[in-house]
Amino acid sequence: MTIPPRLRRALVRMRRDLAFVAAGVPLHLVPVLLAWWALGLLADTVTGISPNAPVVLTAPLTLLVIAGYGFTEAQRWRFRALCGVELPRLRFAEGKRQLGYNWLVGPLLGVLEVLLLALVLAALAAALVLVWVWLVPAQWRSGHPGYTTTGTYLTVLGLAALAVIPGLAAGLVRLEILVGRAVLGVSRSDELARRVEDLTESRAGAVDAADAERRRIERDLHDGAQQRLVSLALNLGLAKATLTDLPAEAQEVIDAAHREAKDAIEELNNLVRGLHPAVLDELGLDAALSGLAARAPLPVRLRVDLPAELPQRAAPAVEAVAYFVVSEALTNVAKHAREATRADVTVTRLGEILRVVIADDGMGGADPSRGSGLKGLAQRVRSVDGTFRMSSPVGGPTMMSVELPCPM
Prior knowledge:
This protein is an alpha+beta fold. Helix content is 70%, strand content 9%. The protein contains 13 helices and 5 strands. Helix 1 crosses helix 6 and helix 12 (316-336) packs antiparallel against helix 13.
């Protein structure tokens, strides 16, 4: 039986929301147990007489602050991995916000998460009550003549509860995202200052990356197609100047070919200034990357997972960066990856993050600090506030991971 695409997307979204909610229960309720233990230790210390009382008094508070920072980092991972929402990394000194979230707001959210998960379990149990009834011995059913009616009511109630659970889960996830951004986010002044700093670095990186890309293309054209066109134009010019005894028709052909060669050189120079794959704008990232994979000199296994339910594509600048990252990575694999027999390219989008992973089975040893090409890729990724990671141990394999922001 084939599940309709809309129902399948709804089930995937509900499973993701419930996983996010379930992961939040220990992160929201464990701090309460830790605080209860710390308060109990403090109470025992205050009521007792101990020569180490100052140390025992400060140790639980210090532990709470350190644990609060750890819980905050765990929450950042939960939002990022399960929901695709990036929360800013707070400094260790910003303890008030972390304490406020982990020990005041978090427990309230934990209660809502527990209630939602309990509703899910109760709804499943109620929806399957007739199944449970038919599994019990027949003697019990004969002694309870009204079990069918009661079981039917419970089943209908359970199915109705299951029908509203996706909406409740989505609402709770949205609430947690709003609360998380409001409490764990940075203040507006800090955000503006950080944004200005990031934009300054990104702009500088974008200028450097664009200049490096232009120089690379110009060098390749100068050493290849442009040299051949210049040589052709020179030969046609010599033929035009020396072969003066040819018929007029032949002279016209040589003259036209000479003009065409010079026009081709000019068009090639103009192409450098506006190089961009048209298929990327017309058909999207999937089609553009499929063309790259088909033209690659080694087998490439491509997987592009861009959910159909997203309201819009990523920004053109983000798609362009993703395209050129894959293009440059496959070029590097073909040129520099020793003994590489294949490459894997995976593109996925989770919420506000577009993740691109390129891996090959070569001998590894690539180092971004030594290669100008890899530095240029990292700068291009940072130009759109993305992150660039690379792992290439000696002996392989090599994996390049790029995460690009896609605000919705």
